Amino acid sequence: MRPRVEEVRIQGLGVIDEAVLELSPGFNVVTGETGAGKTMVVTGLGLLFGGRADPSRIRPGAERAGVEGTLVIEPGGRVAQQVEDIGGDVEDGELIISRTVSAEGRSRAWLGGRGVPVGTLTYLADDLVAVHGQMDQQRLLQPARQRAALDRYAGNDLVKPLRAYTQAYKRHKQVAALLDELTTRARERAQEADLLRFGLEEIEKVDPKPGEDVELRGEEERLSHADALRGAATGAHAALLGDPMQAIDGARDVISLLGEARAAIDAVRDFDAELAGMADRLAEAGYLVSDVATDLAAYAESIEADPARLAVVQERRALLSGLVRKYGEDVTGVLEWARSSAARLTELEGDDERIEELTREHEELTARLTELAAELTRVREVAAERFGHAVTEELAALAMPHARVVVQLTRAAEFGPEGVDEVELRMAAHPAAPPLPLTKGASGGELSRVMLAIEVVFAGADPVPTFVFDEVDAGVGGKAAVEIGRRLARLARTAQVIVVTHLPQVAAFADQHLVVEKASDGSVVRSGVVTLDHEGRVRELSRMLAGLEDSELGRAHAEELLELAAAER
To answer: Which CDD domains match (predicted)?
Structure first.
């Protein structure tokens, strides 16, 4: 199902107080007397699809202008999905869009019942409407649209090479990204590898052993306090066992005291078993104290001040501390870092072959893309030539016999998703004029006719659901006006067309005729937009032809126009 605008309500815009437009899926024409507000219909449609909000367009005395549109869209289609993605509602295939503009210039927009930025309407409009007016030429003035339309116009000739190019381009982009990542990371990885090598070499040079830091810490403590440790052990030994070299009468050591205590108890131990047990314990204490005294003597003998060894231990501990500060909490952590870093270094040194493979593939893909891009350019050049001739012929029939449209292809600096061609439509207003971009080569009215010619040639190739034309017939009449009507009708076979016109030759080709009625006070009444039946169309066309609704000559001419248009539709 093709999306279309079903109904538009306009309030407080220009001379329009309130108006409702009920539109058909085909060719809709809007007519009316000068100043009745026909152009405000296009302005309202422009607002509905994200156009610039101009507070000066608000009806005098009104606080705001508002436009609400009901669109019929395909449920589950692209537009419906876009609306649902932002939280809007599409009910039974109908989408409501609304826009208000306050007298202070504030603008608000709603899409499917949800408030949205105005830019969202503009984005959505790309898939829904093409507005061609004196001040608003949107869709086909966008370079990307022009290339896409030309590609569709080229047809099957471009399908196969474009598909091959697209596949090669995607792979080329993937390979380039991988290669860029690897080569960019190669510098980082090389730096990382250098740091790892330095660390591993530093650790290997020191060659730490598991638990070495703990052992050296203890040894340094002993060597640093050797005299105090030896003195303490000697004093303790003397207290336990005495010093026979310095015996003093009356000196009493622990062993002697334990011996006296044991002797005192041994004399009476046979009289009480409990006391005998205590005597045995005193004997054990004597043996234990004697062993400790012996060990203290040996310990005192082993402790020697050794400044040279102390310096060696301190130097070794300093080396180990340097490693710990960099690579781990202790020597065990340093050894673990060395193990994992060696594995990482092996991994880092394994990408060279991968880079060589990707570089080779990238070069092959670049050569392939160059060939395919050249083929795309060739096909587009043929289509551009054909298209330029077709549009130029259309312009001749639209009262622009000296105008010439060309499609200029320029080469982009880099490969793109669609090739290397940048497409721009240009027009020369007369044979001696150079082709200029459309916005510079044509006046407002001419540009609308150029857009009509382009849209007619592109019809079916660059489908858009709804076209809006304002002043497309400016400055023409007679046979040229009939040709404009024919082309609008032809365009309406594949899209909805809404045209504001003052020419009866154009209006006669419409499927639905709307007239904006002007009230006596210069405003448009609430029901100011009326859908005409056949008799109403005859009266309106007669007014447009002769200035009189009931002129017999005008009515006869109007009937003739309607019959001609009906025969050709």
So the answer is: ABC_RecN
